[in-house]
What does this fold into?
Amino acid sequence: MRSPFHPMNTPAPTPANDAVPHPRAIKSYVLRAGRMGPGQLRAIERHGPQFVLPYRSQRLDAAAAFGRAAPLILEIGFGMGDATAQIALARPQDNFLCCEVHQPGVGALLKRCGEQGITNIRIVQHDAVEVMDHMLGPSSLDGVHIFFPDPWHKARHHKRRLIQGPFVQRLAEHIKPGGYLHLATDWEPYAQQMLEVLSAQPMLRNTSDGFAPKPDYRPLTKFENRGLKLGHGVWDLVFVRT
It folds into this structure.
């Protein structure tokens, strides 16, 4: 499974009174086609009102949205949500705000939340760049997770990669001093580019000498396990906001 940010449906339309009339220079997703299963549709109907937050062009009151004050972690693109659910269960003390425009993935994560009794996840089905710009203030995040973004293998497509200097600048501005940015990829050339881009950002400091050991809270996905059995590597990067 290729996860963030690998959406398959268009984002939910923004209400007219919340429209943000500005060009989107950076996108955190690429639109793709997909289908909704009956279980995902039922989960959206049943659990969406509790877990899905509407995109609005105003600051999010995170404590009100989650029903408590707790460290806020932003996840950008969660694919089908398996790792997201496991991390949220392993870290009940944290709140996880998850951006994904792939509607089947939203349905799948909602299904897991309902089945596993997860309460510390909220989902915004919208572009993460606009969510950061309009719903989250500067230095508002305790952490950011971006796991297995599309590597865009062909050289002519590298400009479409999510992890670029301007986007990392935006991330750094939204992370609190002492907060962290955790990236993971299974494509070594992209891992090297990520390391170069993050190392060039003066607001971020690497927690390791190069790539980081996999933090215990990040589970191995089925996709990752298959790759490891075939001898493929996985590279984690963990940087801290200075």
The two ends are 33 Å apart (CA to CA). The CA atoms of residues 14 and 236 lie 34 Å apart.
